[in-house]
Amino acid sequence: MAFMTCNFYSESLGVSASMNVIVPQATRSQIGLDSQQYGGKHPTLFLLHGLSDDHSIWMRRTSIERYASQLGIAVVMPAVNRSFYADMAYGPKYWEFISEELPALARSFFPLASERELNYVAGLSMGGYGAMKLALTHPERFAAAASLSGAVDIVTRATTFPADFQLIYGDVTTVKGGSNDLFHLANQLVASEKKAPMLYQCCGTEDFLYEDNLRFRDYCRALELPLTYEEEPGEHEWGYWDLKIQRVLNWLPLPERV
């Protein structure tokens, strides 16, 4: 695998931005790493960080490079600060950045596949919310999305992060039923009759977001969305996420290798 830190200018944000990228490399003599590779451009996982993290966190807290190497997929890990993956009322347009500009730039810099069937998104906490938001808003772009301990009910979380949410949304009372509300987006997807991506959701039973995850799970099930849900004892911490990202990678609907 090749690992790169990429610094570039973002038109959406009006400032320089960063992402870490893992790209498959076919090797014969590397010791201790089982390196696989598909033919053509690489299947890609967009892997999103949480509220207090940045683009470096998945490499620092997990063995994501080793896990991805075994499957032969690329991993794109962008930085979005404390934006909740939204076009902020009092800040930059992070939703435009993550949903439009970043994928196009990443594919212009690296040999990444653009087909829906070869694109996936996942994240933890705020990033789990962002992953679900991307997949529910643009089901035509992603074959699968995974949320690890996701902040999936932002209407409830408005009281947890009042300063952040005021900067992000302005009037937080407008969030419910809008384009940032995952429950609303799930409804809209079903009503559109578009093909839904595969969804994966997990949360530790001792996590402060556990009840939020149960509500979102039950809502998706009522809508008959293709959701895989898992829970077990666990808190909001990296030991849990390191284990579950391995589960997510093995769950992804990867194509047959050529």
TrEMBL record:
One of its GO terms (molecular function) is hydrolase activity. InterPro entries: AB_hydrolase_fold, Esterase-like, Mycobacterial_A85_antigen. Keywords: Hydrolase. Pfam families: Esterase. Gene3D superfamilies: alpha/beta hydrolase. This is Alpha/beta hydrolase family protein. It comes from the Bacteria. It comes from Paenibacillus roseopurpureus.
